[in-house]
Amino acid sequence: MRNAFASEILGLAEKNDRLFLLSGDIGNRLFNPYKERFPDRFINCGVAEANMMSVAAGMALAGMRPVVYTIAPFATTRCLEQIKIDVCYQELPVVIVGVGAGLSYASLGPTHHTLEDLAILRTLPHMTIVCPGDSWEVRASLRAALSWEGPVYLRLGKKGEPEVHADIPHKFAIGKGFPLRKGQGDVCLLSAGNTLPLAMEVGDILERKGASPTVVSFHTVKPLDDSLLENAFASHSLVVTLEEHSRIGGLGGAVAEWLADQSDTKARLLRLGIEDLFCPWAGNQEILRSRLGLTAETMAESILSQFSRGKH
Amino acid sequence: MDLKNVTRRMRAKLVEMSHQAKAPHLGSSLSCVDILAAAYWRVLNLDPKDPDNPDRDRFILSKGHAAPALYVALAFRGFFDEAMLNQYTEQGSPLTEHPCLRCVPGVEATTGSLGHGLGMGLGMAVAGRVQKRDFRVYVCLSDGECNEGSVWEAAMLAPAQGLDRLAVVVDFNQWQATGRSREIMSLDPLAEKWSSFGWSAKEVNGHDVDELTEALERVPDGSGKPVAVIAHTVKGKGISFMEDDNNWHYRIPTQDEVRRAKEELLP
User: Fold this and answer.
1) Is the overall model pTM greater than 0.95, yes or no?
2) In this structure, which of B46, B135, B209, B241 has its CB flanked by the most CB atoms within 10 Å?
3) What is d(CA A274, CA A292) in angstroms, rounded to the nearest whole number?
C-alpha cells in the first residue's frame, strides 16, 4: 500500500499543481522521485505532528490541497486537537494519510499500533474515513480523496500486502462499498482496510464448508453506505464486520450504531476485530493476528458457529 | 494618521462589550489593542471591501480569547458594520467568544485552542511561496500561549524553511490565566528564545503604535529569517484600575466600572 501511495501521489501531483505533500520525517527514500520532481511541493515537517497538521490546515486555507503523511498513530491521536479544530471545524480539504495502521508495524509494539483511530476520528464532524483494502484501492481512494470537499483520513497498511483487485477499481467511490463476491444470502462479510485479503480467504473457507458468503470491501467507515447496509441486513442471515481495529468504535461499532437505529432487520451482526487490550508481545503482524484470533480459519469458525446458531 | 483616538474608542468599546455580554478576557483584549491598530491601520496590505483577495496579507489572532479586540478592529476598519458589535455573544450572532473562520469578513482562521495559529500561519506562508504571491503572514500569540509545545514546533520549522514573510507578534503582558507567565513556565528570556530558534527577534513597546508599525513593516527584514516581535504590553492597558491586575482575565466590569473606564478613555 505504501509504494502504491508514493507512486500514485507522484502521478496526481503532475496533474494538480495545488497538491502539496507533508511528511513527518518518514518515507524518506519512498518519496525521492516525488521530491526530485516537485521540490517546492514537499516539506519534511520533522517529528512534530501537531504543527504539521496546523501547517496543512493553513495551506488549505490558502487554496492548496495538502496531503499529510506519517505513521498512523502519529497522524491521528498524536495531533487529535489539530485535526478536530484546524482541519475538521474549519472543514478544510486536508487528506490525512496514516500508514502502518492496525497491527501493520506489529513488531514495533503498542506505541506503533493503531487500534483506536477509527473510533476516535469517526466522532469528528465533517471527517470522512476511508480504509482501502489493497494497493489498488489505495490508488483509487487517494484520487477520490483529492477531489473530496472536506477532510479525509486514509487508513493505510504497510507494503507487500496481497492484492485483491487486478487493476484500479474504476467504480470506487467514497461512501460506496462494493461486493467482491456475491453469495446466496446466508452470510455477508464487510471488511474495512487491510483485512480485505483475509476476508476473501474467509469467504473461500466458508464456501468450502457449504456456505454461500458475500464479501464486501466496505472501505468507507464514515459516511456509512446506508443502502448497502440496508440490503446486507435485509438479504442475509448474518452480517460480519472485519477490521484490524478495536471491536470498540470502528467499523463494527459504526455498524452496530447503525443497526440500533433500524426498526426491522433480518440479519444478526457479528463484529470481528481486536479485543480491548494493548498487544505488547513480540512478533510480526501475522503472529499477532494469529494470537488475537484474526486468522481466516478462526474467523471462519466463529462465523460458522454464529451462523448455525442463527439458523436454529 | 494619529491612531490614539482609534485605540481609545476600541478600548471603550471592549469594556462595553465585556459588560453587555458578560464575557471574560477583557484584560487580554485590552493588551493587544495597539498591536491590532498598528497591523490593521498601518501595516497590512488589505482591502476591507475585498477581504478574500488571494494576495492580501494575513493576520491570525492566535490568542483567540482576545476575539472581541479582533472584532472591534475589523469593524472599525470597515470589514463589517460596527452595529454588529452590539450583538457580540448574543444568540444567533456570528461573534462568538472565540473567533471562527469567516464568522465575519477578515477572520482568517478559527482560534481559541492555543498553539494552533502559528502552524496555520506557517502553512499560509508556504502556500504563498508555492503560488508565487508575495503576501505576508502575521500571527499574534500571547505569552501564556508560548507554553504550548506546538508553538515551538512551528518556531523550529519556519526558519528551516526560510519563511521570511512570516512574522510572530508576542503580546507579552506577563500574565496568563492564573499567574505570572514567567513564573509558571520558564519563559525568560523570551526574545533570546526566538532568536536562538532562528528568528530575527526584536523587542518593542507594545503600546507604541509607531514602534510596532516600524517592526511589523520590516517583514521581510532582509535577514532571510522569519521575524519575531516581542511586544511588551500591560494587561488591561488603558484603564487605570485594570492595568496589570490579572483579575481582569475573568472579571466582568460592572455598570459603574464601564462608566469610569469610559471617562478615562473618552474624556
Assistant:
1) yes
2) B209
3) 7
CB contact under 8 A, B124 and A62: yes
Q: What is the CB-side half-sphere exposure of residue B181 using CA atoms within 13 A?
A: 26
pLDDT tens profile B34-81: 999 999 999 999 999 999 999 999 999 999 999 999 999 999 999 999
Q: Report the residue of chain A nearest B56, measured CA to CA.
A: A62
Domain containing B162 — which CATH number? Answer: 3.40.50.970
Confidence tier at A309 by pLDDT (50, 70, 90): low
Q: In chain A, helix, strand, coil percent, each to 5? A: 45, 20, 35
| Pairwise CA distance, residues A115 & A107, whole Å | 15
Kindly give the pairing relationship between strand A128-130 and strand A220-222. antiparallel
A-chain residues within 8 Å CB-CB of B122? Answer: 51, 54-55, 58
Of A43, A51, A57, the CB nearest to B150: A51
What does the pLDDT look like over A81-130, one tens digit per residue? 999 999 999 999 999 999 999 999 999 999 999 999 999 999 999 999 99
CATH class of A178-311: alpha beta
Please name the fold of domain A2-155: Rossmann fold (3.40.50)
